[in-house]
Structures are given as C-alpha cells and as structure tokens.
C-alpha cells in the first residue's frame, strides 16, 4: 500500500477526559476527579468485555512526553499497543511497545503512522493536542466530560488560536454521569 493510499484511510482521534469547566489535569496532577460519584439512571453501562473489545481496535497511541511520564507513574494503561511519544529529549524507553519521535508532526502522521496504522489515538496532553489541531491533523474529537468542576488546572483548548468548526457525530451518556461527545472535522 502506498503512503497516499494509507493516508486516505487513517483516522486520528483526539481523546481526552475533561472536567465540566474544561480542565484535563489538576495543578497537583492527581486523578481522583476522574472517578465519578454520581449516578445517571438513564445512562448506559459498559462491561469490561466491551471496553477490552473497543481498545483492541486501537492500532496506536500518540502522546506528549509529559503525558508519557505521568502514565508511567500512574501505571501503564496502554498494554502492548504501540505508543509513540513526541519529545525533543532522550527519554529511557520504559517498554518495548514505546517509540520516541522528534520533529515535524505532519511527517509523523503521514510518513510514520499512516503507512502502519489505521486507527490512531492521540491521547494528550494539552500541548501536543493543540499542536495537532493547529496543523489540521485531527479527524475526530472524542471528549469525555466528567461531572465535576475543578476551578483550576490545565486547559485542553487553552491556547487554541483559530476558530474551527466540528460536526457532532455521537453523544453517549453513561450511568456514572460521564458524557462522551464525538465530533468529526469539517471538510471546509
Ligand atoms: N484528562 C485527560 O484525559 C488527560 C489525557 C492526557 C494527559 N493528561 C494530563 O495532561 C498533562 C500533560 O499535558 P501537557 O500539555 O503538560 O503535556 P504533553 O502534551 O503531554 O507533553 C508536552 C511535551 O510533549 C512534547 N511536544 C509537544 N508538542 C510537541 C511538538 N510539536 N514537537 C515536539 N515535541 C512536542 C514536548 O516534549 P519535550 O519537552 O520532552 O521535548 C513537550 O514538552 C498531565 O498532567 C497529564 O496527566 C490528561
């Protein structure tokens, strides 16, 4: 398959969990806010089997170096699925499935990822996601809104420069009060 063919079928999905007030991390980096204490009776529940089947469909994760370092501290949630960490530093590879990339992000997607992977998930953090959005490299945004106001922290879209239109594709409300919003990029 040529690189052009593979570019046509690859999808880059930006996935992030955000508070109601738009933060993706607290100043102290603790993550207890992502555990819901609320209950929404009409919401859907999802089994561990469903989650495992869904995650199996993801071919590759891409993340910034801060997210990588935090994921190592928390306990690696990405299994053996290939992970590309964007960094300008020489970081120790903590796992065989991790690869490091330094350089142009369009080249990363078009030359390194698209020929190998179809379902590419960009999983943070704010800085890397903003760079991907600025460059028009994101096809889909999946935002999971947690039922909590944090008041302060790291804003997902804090420094996004220009207006961009997105199309709402799906909304799923879960029993734990989280809501997942899926948007696709406008073709304009
Ligand atoms: N709520 C959620 O769903 C969620 C998801 C993911 C992460 N997070 C949280 O977000 C925080 C981290 O986010 P962050 O915005 O501080 O950092 P980040 O985006 O994870 O990482 C930033 C680093 O990535 C590298 N980088 C980013 N853009 C680059 C580019 N265009 N070219 C080259 N390198 C680039 C640089 O690494 P070097 O400095 O090494 O060169 C930069 O310092 C953590 O607290 C994490 O837990 C939350």
What's the arrangement of secondary structure elements?
Elements: H1 3-9, E1 11-19, E2 23-25, H2 48-56, E3 60-64, H3 65-74, E4 83-86, E5 98-101, H4 105-113, E6 119-122, H5 126-134, E7 140-146, E8 154-155, E9 166-173, E10 179-185
Parallel strand pairs: 1-6, 1-7, 3-4, 3-6, 4-5
Antiparallel strand pairs: 2-8, 7-10, 9-10
NADP nicotinamide-adenine-dinucleotide phosphate (NAP) binds at residues 16-17, 24-25, 29, 63-67, 70, 86-89, 105, 123-128, 131, 154.
Helix- and strand-based class? alpha/beta
Put simply, the count of helices is 5
Using only C-alpha atoms, the radius of gyration works out to 17 Å
SSE pattern = HEEHEHEEHEHEEEE
Sheet of most strands: 8 strands, mixed
The proportion of strand residues reads: 25-35%
Give the % helix: 10-25%
Number of strands: 10
Output the strand order for the largest sheet.
5-4-3-6-1-7-10-9
Nearest-integer average pLDDT: 93
**Which spans have pLDDT < 50 for at least 5 consecutive residues?**
1-6
Bound molecules: NADP nicotinamide-adenine-dinucleotide phosphate
Question: How would you sum up the global shape?
Answer: globular
Tell me the distance between the termini.
28 Å
């Amino acid at each position: 398959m040529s690189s052009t063919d593979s570019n046509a079928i690859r999808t880059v999905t930006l996935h992030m969990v955000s508070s109601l007030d738009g933060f993706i991390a607290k100043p102290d980096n603790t993550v207890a806010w992502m555990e819901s204490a609320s209950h929404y009776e009409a919401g859907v529940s999802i089994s561990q089997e469903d989650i495992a089947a869904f995650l199996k469909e993801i071919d590759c994760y891409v993340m910034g170096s801060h997210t990588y370092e935090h994921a190592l501290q928390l306990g690696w949630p990405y299994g053996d699925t290939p992970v590309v960490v964007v960094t300008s530093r020489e970081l120790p590879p903590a796992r065989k499935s991790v690869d490091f990339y330094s350089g142009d992000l369009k080249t990363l997607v078009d030359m390194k990822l698209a020929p190998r992977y179809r379902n590419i998930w960009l999983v943070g953090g704010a800085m890397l996601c903003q760079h991907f959005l600025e460059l028009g490299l994101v096809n889909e945004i999946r935002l999971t809104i947690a039922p909590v106001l944090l008041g302060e922290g790291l804003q997902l879209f804090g420094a996004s420069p220009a207006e961009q239109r997105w199309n709402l594709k799906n909304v799923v409300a879960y029993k734990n009060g989280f809501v997942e919003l899926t948007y696709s990029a406008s073709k304009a």
